[in-house]
Write a structure and sequence with these properties.
Keywords: Signal. The chain has 136 residues and is α+β, with helices and mostly antiparallel strands. It contains 4 helices and 4 strands, in the order H-E-H-E-E-H-E-H. The protein has a 4-stranded antiparallel β-sheet.
């Protein structure tokens, strides 16, 4: 039970450690911000989801990339479709909340919501993300 609790607490503790280090040193800590990738069926759904994410202050910035071809297996069959991709810039500590919210409003049965930490970047841009997305 202790191991399970420790594993469940790891993201929270990591986020707190990153915030503390950043506050104390005044320097950017790799991984404090992330880019989430979210697929959408069409441009209107992409715009609606992007606006909803921004309205809830779960991100600072969302790119809506044009249609791309997607190939994937779904229920044992090879599928082909076009999709719109959202690139969502946010605090790493908000990824869980962002994912839960998007799943609650997304029309797909299993939407793609994945994220990667930002290792480095323009310090002023990263600070702007921080200022635009409130802490937990």
């Amino acid at each position: 039970q202790v191991v399970t609790l420790s594993l469940l607490m790891y993201p929270v503790l990591r986020s707190l450690a990153l915030q503390l280090h950043s506050a104390v040193t005044g320097s950017y800590v790799s991984g404090a911000h992330s880019i989430a990738f979210i697929n959408c069926l069409n441009e209107q759904i992409a715009k609606d989801i992007a606006r909803a994410i921004l309205d809830k202050k779960l991100a600072a910035y969302v790119n809506i990339l044009p249609k791309s071809l997607a190939l994937y297996f779904w229920k044992g069959e090879l599928e082909e479709s076009t999709e719109i991709l959202l690139l969502v810039k946010t605090r790493t500590s908000k990824i869980g909340e962002l994912s839960n919210y998007v799943r609650s409003i997304h029309p797909f049965e299993i939407p793609e919501i994945i994220s990667l930490p930002i290792d480095q970047g323009n310090p002023l841009y990263l600070k702007w993300i921080e200022e635009s997305v409130p802490r937990d």
